[in-house]
Amino acid sequence: MIDTNTVAALAEIMRQFGLTRLEARDGEIILEKTPGTIVPVTTAANPFASAATASEPLQYFPEARSGSPVDFNRLTEVRSPIVGVFYIAPSPDSPAFVTVGGQVKKGDILCIIEAMKLMNEIAAEQDGEIVDICLNNGDIAEFGQVLFKMAGDGVITR
């Protein structure tokens, strides 16, 4: 059961970001916006805090290019299997392996993690769309750290 404070907070979030649909069932809350727009999500500890009171900056997730809204409860996180330097491209002069909004197929290279002078390619284990790239080129990736967020069916373990 959702209390009135939660409903008021959700209504404010919907108004503030122009969301068009709210669904609450089985303890899961889904907020949607019409396709082709951007939905900001707060990273504050309280998911119902407004963007103005969020202690951290907003993250932006585009809608899926398929025309259906991204279900934030069903994003797949691609995590680093090792500690190393994160590279989004094969060389400084090359284009990135993937970009936000880009479609990937199972087996496509997502990034490279350099560990002990070895270049380890991280490949997609499912088809999907890149929704967020969580590190910048040259950042240190920790073991288990989220590298990418993907919309699509299935699970990526690496």
Q: Can you offer a commentary on this structure?
A:
The chain is elongated, with a radius of gyration of 17 Å. The chain is built from one helix and twelve strands; from the N terminus they run αββββββββββββ. The relative contact order is 0.17. Mean pLDDT is 75; it is low at 36-66 and 154-158. The strands form four sheets. The protein has a four-stranded antiparallel sheet with strand order 5-12-10-7, with no helix packed on it. It has a four-stranded antiparallel sheet with strand order 9-8-6-11, with no helix packed on it. The protein has one helix spanning 4-17; strands at 21-25, 28-32, 38-41, 59-62, 76-79, 84-87, 103-104, 109-115, 118-123, 128-133, 140-141, 146-151. With 158 residues, it is mainly beta.
Supply the CATH architecture of the largest domain.
Beta Barrel
Distance between the termini: 37 Å
Taking the sheet with the most strands, its summary is: 4 strands, antiparallel
The arrangement of helices and strands along the chain is HEEEEEEEEEEEE
- Low-confidence stretches are 36-66, 154-158
The residue-averaged pLDDT reads 75
- Helix count, per DSSP? 1
Q: What is the count of β-strands?
A: 12
Structural class per helix/strand content? mainly beta
- Overall morphology: elongated
Helical amount among residues, as a percent range?
under 10%
- Rg from alpha-carbon coordinates: 17 Å
For the largest sheet, list the strands in their spatial order: 5-12-10-7
Q: What fraction of residues sit in β-strands? A: 25-35%
CATH topology description of the largest domain: OB fold (Dihydrolipoamide Acetyltransferase, E2P)
List the domain count as a whole number: 2
CATH superfamily annotation of the largest domain: RNA polymerase II/Efflux pump adaptor protein, barrel-sandwich hybrid domain
Mind telling me the CATH class of the largest domain? Mainly Beta
